[in-house]
Amino acid sequence: MDFTSTILQLFYKLWWLIPIVIVLEIIKSPWFKGVTGESLANLNIKLFLDENKYHLLKNVTLSTEDGTTQIDHIIVSEYGVFVVETKNMKGWIFGSSNQKYWTQQIYRYKNKFQNPLHQNYKHTKTIEHLLGLHSDQIFSVVVFIGESTFKTKMPENVTSGRGLIRFIKSKQKRVFSDVEVADIKHKIGVGKIAPSLKTSRRHIKHVKTIVAQKEKQKKCPKCGSEMVIREAKKGVNTGKKFWGCSTFPKCRGIVDY
Questions:
Q1: 243 and 178 assigned to the same domain
Q2: Fewer CB within 10 Å, N side or C side of the chain?
Q3: Domain tally for the chain?
Q4: For 194-224, how does the pLDDT look when each residue is reduced to its tens digit (9 = 90+)?
């Protein structure tokens, strides 16, 4: 029996393993984890929020000055507009508001990922500009779906599981009328880009470009130390993010974000 015949016989016997391997690879992919996380968040929203008061818009892609931004969930209600970023992750999660990257740890394995609060900042600002709203009418929320545990203290708008529902329901001050809620939903519907493979590819390409550009801006122009993202706490620039030297106050080097 020659080598080719042996290979063909093995293929005929084990061909059924090929689709299993493909399915396993898909399940392990970041895309599948993202879709699963968004689906679980959708389920929580549908089960525990009154759909007559809280209006869910999913996977909204909007145009920006430098490309596009994609938002997992937007919840429009009389209590404000909630912009939700979902993360389907497991293990220990370490991070703080000002850090550029957070850390996921599973036993000895560590993985750095972009601070989701910074990701969602652009989303909220895009919505703010599109709708002509004030920042106190928009709430940024980051929800972790999966078997993860926060190992550092997180802000109230970073939560997990049902914490998303608790955060949304904690906002009880009415800021929009029924007419305004309907108008906001209409504006988002008109402003969003129709979902398509082309739209997704364009957005992914834009995100990769932005990440590459930001990776280059790591060193302080004054002392060469690593830069971190900070947020102005007072003055005319309150709430605005900027790159600040990690050695502050020893060095006060800053760069626009």
A1: no
A2: N
A3: 2
A4: 654 444 455 445 445 545 555 555 677 777 7
Q: Is the pLDDT of residue 148 over 80?
A: yes
Specify whether 226 is located in the same domain as 135. Answer: no
Note the pLDDT tens digit of each residue in 151-183: 999 999 999 988 999 999 999 999 999 999 999
* pLDDT tens digit sequence for 77-123: 999 999 999 998 889 999 998 888 999 999 888 898 999 999 899 89
142 and 233 fall within a common domain: no
Q: Is residue 207 located within the same domain as residue 226?
A: no
> Where in the sequence is the domain holding 246, given as residue range(s)?
217-257
Residues 110 and 24 in one domain: yes
Are 114 and 174 found together in one domain?
A: yes
